[in-house]
């Protein structure tokens, strides 16, 4: 994959580049948005930019990709590439935009590292970039071809349901009256809205169920910034979008999908709004005749904040061998536990495949507990809402 000469140069310079990546990506985004302000207005998440999380995710993915090329020269990190490609395809990222990113990223590298960026160093990192970019371009093209149809399609809000004080479910049907394509439980769609300042911002929401053959369903949590900006799109959807309104949606994307036969034991763990893909998975399992044990784990602040609780409980009850384990930080009812998710007393069947969705601290904790219980690392799958800072934390 990486040429021998470039591999030696990247290995020698990775510590310096890695140490400067956060500064490099900060300068990169500043230069990119100064030259192409429409990208910030209409493609990139302005909230993530303000909070710095997109910068951390980009730095983590670059470092992880480069390290993988050095440590496993005969392999490509397909799992990481697929995750990024699904995100990009759902956002409508184009092949041409990779050239724009290359221009500003390498200007930032040269600006931060100065004379250390010799022609040899530049050529080696250029090779790393285009290996990653061309792989992503190919996967994204294939994903779009598989789904077919336009990148964006109008959907009418058929029903709006208040789940909790901060979560609303939207059930949508195609405004053009056309067919609804199948999706895999665990996938998400991108939603594009026009905000009051004219920006066309995009956010991704898990499909939280399949309420009918001609409907899609998303459940949106209103994001409170807690020191960072409030969620622009989530607040817009809560405050302004009612039954009869029209939203622009992408087709379904995402690589966190159930990949298990009817006899594979499963563990589905969520916290907070991470429940959304899990309820879709439970509905699929109940409808497909899954026979093996299913352990369902969820943590929340209280029963009042537990979105889709009725679906969570009813779909679990429809499975022949399933158990629901609930933890609430406060007001735990009979049958639930108080505090954070603790799997010490939860039985986990041999050969269990686990799917996790929720805040990163929750997923790291549950992953560690499952590894201690003997679940194989290859059988642990996760979904991150927003930039994938799991990678950033591993680099």
From TrEMBL:
<dbReference type="InterPro" id="IPR009050">
    <property type="entry name" value="Globin-like_sf"/>
</dbReference>
<dbReference type="Pfam" id="PF00042">
    <property type="entry name" value="Globin"/>
</dbReference>
<keyword id="KW-0001">2Fe-2S</keyword>
<comment type="similarity">
    <text>In the C-terminal section; belongs to the flavoprotein pyridine nucleotide cytochrome reductase family.</text>
</comment>
<keyword id="KW-0408">Iron</keyword>
<keyword id="KW-0520">NAD</keyword>
<dbReference type="Pfam" id="PF00175">
    <property type="entry name" value="NAD_binding_1"/>
</dbReference>
<keyword id="KW-0411">Iron-sulfur</keyword>
<dbReference type="InterPro" id="IPR039261">
    <property type="entry name" value="FNR_nucleotide-bd"/>
</dbReference>
<dbReference type="InterPro" id="IPR017938">
    <property type="entry name" value="Riboflavin_synthase-like_b-brl"/>
</dbReference>
<dbReference type="Pfam" id="PF00970">
    <property type="entry name" value="FAD_binding_6"/>
</dbReference>
<keyword id="KW-0479">Metal-binding</keyword>
<dbReference type="InterPro" id="IPR001433">
    <property type="entry name" value="OxRdtase_FAD/NAD-bd"/>
</dbReference>
<keyword id="KW-0813">Transport</keyword>
<protein>
    <recommendedName>
        <fullName>nitric oxide dioxygenase</fullName>
        <ecNumber>1.14.12.17</ecNumber>
    </recommendedName>
</protein>
<feature type="domain" description="FAD-binding FR-type">
    <location>
        <begin position="150"/>
        <end position="259"/>
    </location>
</feature>
<dbReference type="InterPro" id="IPR012292">
    <property type="entry name" value="Globin/Proto"/>
</dbReference>
<comment type="similarity">
    <text>Belongs to the globin family.</text>
</comment>
<dbReference type="InterPro" id="IPR000971">
    <property type="entry name" value="Globin"/>
</dbReference>
<dbReference type="InterPro" id="IPR017927">
    <property type="entry name" value="FAD-bd_FR_type"/>
</dbReference>
<keyword id="KW-0521">NADP</keyword>
<keyword id="KW-0561">Oxygen transport</keyword>
<keyword id="KW-0349">Heme</keyword>
<dbReference type="InterPro" id="IPR008333">
    <property type="entry name" value="Cbr1-like_FAD-bd_dom"/>
</dbReference>
<feature type="domain" description="Globin">
    <location>
        <begin position="1"/>
        <end position="141"/>
    </location>
</feature>
